Amino acid sequence: YIHVKELQEIINAHSYRVKKVDCLDLPEKLPDEVVKVDLLEKKLYKKLATESAILEYEILAENPLSRLVKLRQLSSGYLTYKEGREDKLLDLKTEKLSVLEEILEGYPDDKKVVIFAEFKYSIAKISELLRKLKIRFVVLDGDQKDKTIWRKFQTDKRIRVIVCQYQTASAGIDLFASDTIIYYEPTLRSNTLEQSRDRIHRSGQKNKCSYIHLLTRGTVEVDIYRALAGYSDFSEALFTRYMEGYRRSYNS
Predict the structure, then answer these.
(1) Around Cβ 203, how many Cβ atoms within 10 Å?
(2) Cβ neighbours of residue 233 under 8 Å, at least 6 residues apart?
(3) pLDDT tens digits for range 63-107
């Protein structure tokens, strides 16, 4: 972090910087569409947020990072926990899948859709829904051995949906065969979100780009999205502020 100005002058002498907005004639990105879904497991969410534990399932969230992960999981309809040495999964009620189903059923058959999710459980449930709706799809996540599978989504007209995990698919690929991204759950990093937006906003895109965010009402997801919309990461400090506000609302 020293001699930054001098280093920049040397770089500028040997480079020419062009922004994407200046060199590509791309259609605009439309404002985000936020769809809020109801939290169906309010009691469990309240217990986890105010007591840091759900004793009937022996689920503990003793530190901020663990608590944030559990609250995010619960917002998407599940919880993971340990029973002895064994990993367990608690399948919970959620409206996200039914809302996603409504969106997909109302979508034209000749258009493609990109879905981003954070958790493996969510990707599995989305995949299950797509099979039920008889929609052909591919998945690009950490378990996908074929990291070029996105090319099939781009070229095969029969494949209507690609389900992406942020960590795997938010950079370095082109998904402009679609002009719509549905965010099943928010990521924590602003840069990751912005990179994911650009997967469809690429050279070759002819339509305006739409971004639909599914957020569970009354949960940390709303605060996460608020930070991302302001181009900020959702930090531990912001989570601490959220927890303080949540607890005050129940103690007042």
Answers:
(1) 11
(2) 188, 189, 190, 191, 227
(3) 999 999 999 999 999 998 887 778 889 999 999 999 999 999 999
User: Which ranges in 106-213 belong to alpha helices (H)?
Assistant: 120-132, 150-155, 166-169, 190-197
- Specify whether the CB–CB gap between 74 and 80 falls below 8 A: no
Cα–Cα distance, 85 to 91 (Å, whole number): 19
**For all residues of the chain together, what is the average pLDDT?**
92
Query: In angstroms, how far is the first alpha carbon of the chain from the final one?
Result: 47
Dihedral class, residue 133 (left if φ above 0, else alpha if ψ from -120 to 50, else beta): alpha
Whole-angstrom Cα distance, residue 122 to residue 95? 13
Q: How far apart are CA 96 and CA 77, in angstroms?
A: 8
What is the helix (H) or strand (E) element at residue 204, kind and residue range? none
Residue from 147, 145, 144, 153 nearest 115 by CA: 153
Tokens of 2: 């020293």
HSE on the CB side for 180, CA within 13 Å? 15
Please give the single-letter amino acid code of residue 41. Answer: E
- Beta strands 59-60 and 53-54: pairing type? antiparallel
